[in-house]
């Protein structure tokens, strides 16, 4: 193969040889630019962007942690009534239909909510601490329509 190319190249005139050299140089330049320089430059730009985003995210996390360290400790609220009544009222206030609300001893209650949006239930459970209640156990059962069935055991929060 190389013998045939060499024979072909020798058979060219001086002007044709110069044009083939120029075409080869331009081809090599195009391959260098589009095959090496542009992909490496794009990769470096993307890496710099990812690094900047990661650095900003890390800064936000550190700032959030510092804010949490400086924040005063939350004090538990005093429960204003029996656990089952406070929990039932809180659930109804949050817009849930309570299927059952059973008292378990002096300072515990079990609530069953047949259907609710998961995000609303989790927000409600998170806010119970401010009402003097602590979540002892929770069971979320998903339904095909995207809602959940909730069974939660609540107790009086330690003072």
How would you summarize the topology of this molecule?
Elements (H helix, E strand, L loop, with lengths): L1 H9 L3 H57 L12 H11 L6 E4 L4 E9 L1 H10 L5 E10 L5 E9 L3
Antiparallel strand pairs: 1-2, 2-4, 3-4
In percent, how helical is the residue content?
40-55%
Q: What distance lies between the first and last C-alpha atoms, to the nearest angstrom? A: 91 Å
Structural class: alpha+beta
Mean pLDDT: 89
Strand order of the largest sheet: 1-2-4-3
Question: Could you explain how this protein is built, in words?
Answer:
With 159 residues, the chain is of the alpha+beta class. It contains four helices and four strands; from the N terminus they run H-H-H-E-E-H-E-E. It has a four-stranded antiparallel beta sheet. Strand 3 and strand 4 form a beta hairpin. The radius of gyration is 36 Å and the shape is rod-shaped.
Label this structure with key terms.
single chain; 159 residues; 4 strands; alpha+beta; 4 helices
Quick summary of this structure?
The chain is built from 4 helices and 4 strands, in the order H-H-H-E-E-H-E-E. With 159 residues, it is of the alpha+beta class.
